[in-house]
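pinning this so it doesn't scroll away 📌
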Amino acid sequence: MRKVELDAPNLGEHEKQYLNKCIDLSFVSTVGPFVPEFEEKFAKYIGVRKAISVQSGTAALHIALYELGIGKGDEVIVPALTFIATINPILYVEAKPVIVDVDLETWNIDPEEIKKAVTKNTKAIIPVHLYGNPCNMDAIMKIAEEYNLYVIEDATESLGATYKGKQTGTFGDFGCFSFNGNKLITTGGGGMVVTGDEKRAEHIKFLVNQARDDSKGYYHPEMGFNYRMTNIEAALGLAQLKRIDEFLNKKRKFRQIYQEVLIDLPYVKFQKECNGTEGSWWLTCIKIEKDVNIDSLMEKLKEKGIQTRRIFVPACEMPYLKKYSTECPNAYKIYQKGICLPSSTLNTADSVKGAGLIIKELLNG
């Protein structure tokens, strides 16, 4: 059986054409036409006024927090089940992450846990649309409005996902995206901050270029950051953006195939979607509510050419984050029983079905 890829990027002749054009024009660094074009087309696709390219999803989250003035003494509520890059930027600005549990069915931050965690020092919520499954944004935005909190959406895994017809990343004050090599579309590295606030967008654009005032040469009126995207990255992003519908359709089809193959295994649970949402399913993941050794299962699948990976270790397990955490039993249950299935758009429907059948065979055995 041919290897069934977990999250490998899908690159081809289209991407080569864009990269060659970029090289032929010698616009390989941060100055050139590809970056603004990528920002403009990304903003249009998402449905926002402004998009500012940066060097990573982590940089996007960091600069969003920084722009909102969040710092020492402030608290930011985040879910326990997420990649660590959601939480580290809170520490970068010297604020306090408040790590709360997730919903056992959607795997996303639980609005009830958010509400319980709000204090007089709370300044923001960072909901994470985990693995491309949109959060309950109505409930989250209602809490934010009630307590006058900022919302920074971690949409790094959810490009193309929608909640009640709107793209994830467009509900809060900022939406943050990642174009890492394993994401739906890639620029190699890179990220994007999106917002409807044009004034804040212009200031972020200024900050990520070392806060340089071009009219005065190398003059910097405030501290800035070197978070600019390169034109080579943006050229790759433009090529990938043209293929986004192809990629989304494949991701959604793969999840459907896994559900159909595993439907008669009642102990296999997929992430549940909120009403009115359409996930992008960057990774299709399952929770196996059966006495099975996940690591052993993964090793057997690897031997058969099927790539998988564990669910994120709950953030409350990290030694340096334990003091910021509440008890998170749901996050632990999902981690202990969860596994990410092959979801790369390099795969075919047949290879995904084959992987699903092998998973089923091993679980039945």
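📌 and the second one:
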Amino acid sequence: MTIGFELIKSDAKSHARRGRLATPHGVVETPAFMPVGTAATVKAVKPDDLTNIRTQILLANTYHLFLRPGHEIVREAGGLHTFMHWDGPILTDSGGFQVFSLGHINQISEEGVSFRSHIDGSPLLLTPEKSMEIQEALGADIIMAFDECTDYPADHAYTREALLRTGRWLERCAAAHKATDRQGLFGIMQGGMYPDLRKESAQIITQMDLPGYAIGGLSVGEPKEVMYEILDGCTDLLPENKPRYLMGVGSPDAILEGVARGIDMFDCVLPTREARHGSVMTSSGPINIKNAQYTRDFSPLDAECDCYTCRNFSRAYLRHLCKAGEILSAMLLSIHNIRFLLKLTEEIRAAIEAGDFGDYRREFFAKYYKTIVE
């Protein structure tokens, strides 16, 4: 098996779990956060910086790399690991979400999705087989099945139609997936905000003994309370001995709530996107570094953080960079925000091992969000 998962410890008072995911390019300790390198780069962050802040695994995107520079160019370069100079594990999204959210859709059919490129308007067709071909060329350790992610809200009938098509596409992905010796294929649960459809989708995808399973179609515009309610019923539908990946979710609260419900893997563009706008995660809560109150604040960004930014620069300097529009501000704040989420997952793993995840979760919410969580 290319991908192996070991369940190390389960929390006695929640569904939180501590695990270890083995891949061809290294081991990932879970729960884990994956920074997003959509176009074979994490925006404004160099690979050695990612290593220094103890990044375990990155995500890259099939849709974007298919359009530019093209998967054959990446293959010729030796695959993503060589192309982007990253030696650790990589997961590639199938491109399904981006086709539906970015591409101008012409038609969804049993064959796949025809759409127009958001770059130049050229007509394209993405099928389960094409997604597998692209991801094999990219050479990621974990690849995702091509799926249909429904909008929010979507009615019950269409959501069921989409999850059934996703199941049929998964069968085609598995049949087309040839690089089983070096890539692990994950199936994706769909079903929108309907518990009965989530159950049906889980039954379909788990009929195939895959290395891991993802929960898709959440964080697509629904209130977080609705997402958590749906998650409550999702993880128990997936095998205990396989990693569970919640796609596109990565705010601190959602990571903690996801872990409490049995999620092992997360990804999100949030830390770098927020950084580019001056929004910073700190141990005492989020701040906007552009605010005037930091003009003469010569203290570190976060005294509890061990990243390069916090060890070397003041809030006053970082505010100056943001206000001046300097590229360095995006670099330094992105390093910090990603490290914040990586450190959060490190502390979560330690809390689960120590048997006090519940206490850690309550204390984090009280300090970061100034709220009490039962």
